[in-house]
Records
---
Amino acid sequence: MNIEEYKRPEPRQPEARLSEWFSPAKRGVGGWAFLLHRFTGIVLVLYLALHFYVLSYLARGPEAYQAALNFLENPIFVALEVALIAAVIYHGLNGLRLILMAYNIGVKHQKAMFWVVFVLSALTTLVAAVYML
Ligand code: HEM
């Protein structure tokens, strides 16, 4: 094709792209797996900041740290901890699924692998919750 004949495609509208994030309509299993991976990744980064904040109480002495730990025994924080475990396990297992796929292993079975990851994450979280609650 002659370079003068080339017609640049119209750029997609940013609004359309943003709405696609929230649309379940066109999202397959792989799309949901990706969204969950990104969401749990962001949750883990935010948790890391919170974790350092709680650890910073150590610098204020053992009493201050113990007071912080006592505060975190609140059932709301325990429930959030269970959700954190779910996020860690899903992100880690799905991360392994993504690494396999990056090496072209199991790409044809990516949906089945997602369900294995999902069920394993749910079961592990359930076991952890039974121990914690
Ligand atoms: C078990 C350990 C982990 C494994 C195996 C893992 C694996 C991965 C992989 C393979 C990706 C790339 C996803 C892609 O190509 O689309 C990724 C993305 C990411 N991970 Fe992890 N990860 C782990 C732990 C963590 C931790 C501890 C954090 C946070 C402190 C984290 C935060 C993120 C974030 C923010 C992204 C970017 C997500 C995105 O762009 O959609 N990950 N992880």
---
Amino acid sequence: MREELLHLIFPNVCVVCHSLLLPAEAYCCHRCIAEFDAFKSPWAAEEVLRHTIQSRFGGTLHFEHGWCRYLFHKHSSLQELLHAMKYEGLFDLATTFGRQLGEWMLSGDDALQVEVIVPVPLHRLKKIERSFNQAEKIAEGIGQSLHLPVRSELLARKRYTASQTGLSAAMRKKNLAGAFQASKAIAGRHVLLVDDVVTTGATLAAAAEAVRRGGAASLSVAAIALAAKE
Ligand SMILES: [Zn+2]
């Protein structure tokens, strides 16, 4: 049964382990969340994010600050949760994770420099196919914590790119070149680009390039998770 139908009938069951949720829990139980591989601090996460993107992508993505809450492992409970969020249309779950990420970002002062939040867009066709852009919902959650606007319209996906799954870093880079276009209204702002999971950094880098071309003053990035080296 599709997860959203299951949730209509059993709204108080964990999406990962299917055990009954406590009144204070939403979508995912505390035991499953405790299994996620969380970074110790925003600064530790930023260092790993920088280093990982540089080694996987070649260091062409420069960002002011980078936030990332979890390391993502294959076949983990976090993977199940993110899968449910992405493909089963659990909007509120994506927003909740965004809000938590935003609160975590506020544990340092760096997040206060951000002026505008922009999610990495899905192509219009893909959005219909998947029904919602999870990066946008995560961005909305971050926006609620940071009290900042989410401006999805400032960055558009110009063309439909083939799925990135199974492509090498070089192929991803080629697949995404020129895929995004930023609005002129981005000029002079400190932009926070938001995505769900960073794999090679190719998507973020392509989006970042468009943001820079649009004349943004600074660029920072945030994602729920960074894919661990398997
Ligand atoms: Zn659970």
